[in-house]
Amino acid sequence: MNVDLGVALNENHFDSLNQTVLEIQNLVSSSAAAVLIIQNGVVVNEWYSGRHDHSEQSRKVDAKSQFNIGSIRKTYLGFAISLALQEGRLKGLDDFVSNYLDDVDDSVITGTTIRHLLSHTHGLYEPLKRMFPAGTNWKYNNAGVNLLISIVQKVFDRPLASVINDEVLRRYGLTETGWRKEQSENLVWVNETYSGEHGGEANLFASTRDLAYWGYLHLTKGSYQGDQLLPKTIFQRAVEITTPSSLDDTLPRNGFFWWVQDRPRSMSELGQQLPKGSFQSLGIFGNALLVIPEYNVVAVRMLNQIERNPEGYNYLKDIQNFRNKVLECILSNEILK
Fold first, then answer.
1. Helix and strand counts by DSSP (H, E) for the chain
2. Rounded CA gap, 211 and 174, in Å?
3. 3-state SS of 103-148?
4. Which residues of the chain have pLDDT under 70?
5. InterPro entries from the xrefs (predicted)?
6. Which residues are 204's β-sheet partners?
7. CA torsion 293→294→298→300, rounded to 10°?
């Protein structure tokens, strides 16, 4: 991305964070890793480790390396839904899914709204069957994601990838982000097979910088070098809590797929320490995108994790440790105080 963010690298200050990620990289057999921190509009830490795969001839990881960001792709889908609301293509969050999808069994999705799909409270699983009444519980899966991808296709009359390419990537200069089905020099590949680049599969790749700037756009509500290229409400809406207010207090709160911190909740991955208003998205290969508005911070971690749960590894503790290290480092960063 051609963005004019200042750079005040303080690598020694963030060494403990980078070392923590390096240890996880080795533990989960990830050949590649990266960390980038933006604080107060300045890149304060940018760190790369390893190679695109485990062979000695493989390319070294650098700023151009693009990682598969896994489920973080859902935040781009969330943007498309927010844009559709902004443009009147969708009537509202509480509009019924059945109003847009004619080829889905209405008896299964009855009572299910756009809000339910975005907040994982739809109660559906694939092939489309019902686990619980919409809005009464929370379950993380891709059933709602796939329905929303179909809704985007319907209301925009083009695939999700086309919407994101035209409305976000080109507009904001995110040239190192996109759906990829073929391996290429810049991609940190994970030996998976994809059939297309239309946005319906988990094959969205991004460079570390591009993913950090994606988070930064949500922090600045779409402001780009002083210009408001899209209405700020599109970004603001996406990171506000969408979860039905009646949901059990222990369950997570989501925006447009983002995990949003209002207060600590026992079933939320956000933990106890993040301030109110923080939001986060995670990917299956070990990627993390964390935004902390109270401290004006965006933090990104990239991995190409192959081994899911090796001995001695706990996913939730790993994510919490990364978050805690980010907080520890930024709160003591004298350069930007």
1. 10, 15
2. 9
3. CCCHHHHCCCEHHHHHCCCCCEECCCEECCCCCCCCCCCCHHHHHH
4. 1-6, 8-11, 334-337
5. Beta-lactam-related (IPR001466), Beta-lactam/transpept-like (IPR012338), Diverse_Enzym_Activities (IPR050789)
6. 179
7. -110
CA atoms of 243 and 278, how far apart (whole Å): 16
**Dihedral sign for Cα atoms in the order 263, 266, 267, 273:** positive
Report the distance separating Cα 198 and Cα 195, nearest Å: 9
The fold for domain 64-294 equals Beta-lactamase (3.40.710)
Amino acid symbol at 314: N
Closest Cα partner for 122 from 307, 131, 74?
131
- The amino acid that residue 109 corresponds to is I
CA 53, CA 59: separation in Å to the nearest integer? 8
Alpha-carbon span 198 to 183, nearest angstrom: 16
Q: In degrees to the nearest 10, what's the CA dihedral of 270, 199, 183, 64? A: -50
- For the entire predicted model, the pTM comes to 0.96
For 205-250, how does the pLDDT look when each residue is reduced to its tens digit (9 = 90+)? 999 999 999 999 999 999 988 899 999 999 999 999 999 999 999 9
Angle in degrees, CA 181, 186, 190, rounded to 5: 55
Phi/psi of residue 78, nearest 5 degrees: -60, -40
Rg (CA), the chain: 19
Which among 168, 308, 300, 150 is positioned nearest to 230, based on CA atoms?
Answer: 168
Q: 188: which 2 tokens?
A: 């940190």
- Classify strands 42-50 and 32-39 as parallel, antiparallel or unpaired: antiparallel
- What tokens were used for 123? 């109660």
> Domain spans of the chain?
64-294
Tokens of residue 53, six digits: 């795969």
Position 306 scores a pLDDT of 82
Residue 129: beta bridge partners? 125
Q: How far apart are the first and last CA of the chain?
A: 26
Check whether the bond before 159 is cis (ω within 30° of 0): no
Judge contact between 26 and 198, C-beta under 8 A.
no
Report whether 237 contacts 81 (CB < 8 A).
no
289 three-class SS = strand
